Amino acid sequence: MAVDPSGADLANLVDQEPDGPFVMLNLLRFAPGGYALYQEYSRAAARFLAEYGGELLYAGDGGTPLVAEEGQDWDAVLLVRYPSREAFGRMVADPGYQEITSLRSRALAEAVLQPTTPWGGGR
Questions:
Q1: Most buried of 38, 65, 73, 90, CB within 10 angstroms?
Q2: Which sign does the torsion angle of CA 101, 95, 49, 42 carry?
Q3: Tens of pLDDT along 72-99?
Q4: What single DSSP character describes residue 71?
């Protein structure tokens, strides 16, 4: 199961329009013992979020799904706002950030990272 985006996935994200603020939905399933590792990653990542203008909007434990197929439950949900796709790309390319990504990778058994943009009047 995938937990980390590929370089091609990141390049595609950064190239997408519009390049305004967006919120990244994080759906996380922890590996055994992964919760503590993810907390360590989160503490270290907070510095990079602040440096690149990101903001943790919400982090919480997943509950029993009300509507979902089997296997679609998640251990945790996070919503992280970034000022732009370009800022997100710079953050994940930062050598200091790269040093802490192994914590996240080891913590997770599966993840979904889905960028979202607000609905506008054109929908």
A1: 38
A2: positive
A3: 899 999 999 999 999 999 999 999 999 9
A4: T
